[in-house]
From TrEMBL:
This is Alpha/beta-Hydrolases superfamily protein. PANTHER family: ALPHA/BETA-HYDROLASES SUPERFAMILY PROTEIN, FUNGAL LIPASE-LIKE DOMAIN-CONTAINING PROTEIN. Residues 106-243 form the Fungal lipase-type domain. Residues 1-23 form the signal peptide. Pfam families: Lipase_3.
Length: 365
């Protein structure tokens, strides 16, 4: 066997041992290796990333009926309960019921591609300028906070969760988001626990930015301990707004637990590492060990496309012959399913935040 062949064999042997080194630092806080699944479930991550991708679907009819090209596969059998579109602020979320895992799923959309470059540049300059209510010294950015708390998203999401739990019982809640959607998902999960008194709330985000300081991060993980932040290779967004370790009390700080996805290998042998990071939220051996300079890595997670289907800002399409439609004066829409009806008889209903007007036909917003 030539030297190149031996090198491939040696590399393959080394790669077989790499999974054993995942989760560097696990021994530091007394967890056995087999307990690592309690921190991060690979199968669940692959399911939830598909939900996070589906929210970028432009056609709300396909999304509502769960027939879009991104709907299915690992998410087969999912039933959408509510879709919320805040056109005024270019925000979107949906709530639904999953058979596997048996849970209520809440998903928030991230930033559209045509504005992502400007949004990333803006992240460099975001200041900690809002005291988080009820937690002294906990600081967040008002833009991240307001995107969830001060728009049409919050009341519609809470209403959907409440009515679904009345029908389905005390099932777990999983909140998901990618990019800016991850920031909104984080505030939603915290809201559900602290302000709504709900239990069994899990958060998993993909490529989310930092949203608060170290005091907020500590408070957050105390309230929502079942939290995973998935990052990918050189994705630029998790590096923003910047973290300055020389000023720990004055800088943004991620909450734990990060899982860093990155490839290792030699030549054609490439192996995906899903590295479970330490409890600090800012593990220097995870995504902080590389330069965050890639938008490309931000738009693919676990092989799933996280791009929007259109470059048009807040552009959505609906077939009004399928979904009877009303819209408020600001253009904000809530598509809501009556969960009390039998599935075979269930028809979508559109509820409004304000007095709306009836529109018919097929249109693009």
């Amino acid at each position: 066997m030539d030297q190149k062949g031996w090198l491939k064999i040696i590399a393959l042997i080394l790669l077989c041992f790499l999974p054993l080194s995942q989760g560097r630092g696990l021994g530091d806080f007394g967890l056995k290796r087999e307990d690592s699944n309690q921190i991060y479930n690979k199968t669940l991550a692959r399911i939830l990333v598909e939900y996070a991708s589906a929210v970028y679907t432009m056609d709300l009819t396909e999304l509502f009926t769960w027939t879009c090209s991104r709907c299915g596969d690992l998410t087969e059998g999912f039933e959408v309960v509510e879709i919320i579109v805040d056109v005024q602020n270019c925000l979107q979320a949906y709530v639904g019921v999953s058979p596997d895992p048996n849970a209520i799923i809440i998903v928030f959309r991230g930033t559209q591609e045509n504005s992502i470059q400007n949004w990333i540049e803006d992240l460099f300059w975001k200041q900690l300028d809002l005291n988080y209510p009820g937690m002294p010294d906990a600081m967040v950015h008002h833009g991240f906070y307001s995107a969830y708390h001060n728009t049409t998203l919050r009341p519609a999401v809470l209403r959907a969760v409440e009515k679904t739990r009345k029908l389905k019982g005390d099932v777990p809640i999983i909140v998901v988001g990618h990019s800016m959607g991850g920031a909104m998902a984080s505030f939603c999960a915290l809201d559900l626990v602290v302000n709504q008194g709900m239990e069994k709330v899990k958060l998993m985000t993909f490529g989310q930015p930092r949203i608060g300081n170290a005091v907020f991060a500590s408070y957050f993980i105390e309230q929502v301990p079942d939290t995973i932040r998935v990052t990918h290779a050189h994705d630029i967004v998790p590096h923003l707004p910047p973290y300055y370790h020389y000023f720990p009390q004055k800088t943004y700080h991620h909450f734990p637990r990060e899982v860093w996805l990155h490839d290792v290998g030699l030549g054609s042998l490439v192996y995906l590492i899903e590295q479970i990071c330490d409890e600090s939220g800012e593990d220097p051996t995870c995504s902080r060990s590389v330069s965050g300079n890639s938008v490309k890595d931000h738009l693919v997670y676990l092989g799933v496309n996280m791009k929007a289907e259109t470059w048009g800002t807040c552009r959505i399409v609906m077939d009004y012959s399928v979904l009877p439609y009303q819209m408020d004066l600001a253009g904000n829409v809530v598509l809501s399913k009556d969960m009390m009806r039998k599935e075979s008889e269930s028809q979508p209903i559109i509820q409004l935040d304000k007095q709306g007007s009836r529109v018919s036909g097929t249109s693009t917003i």
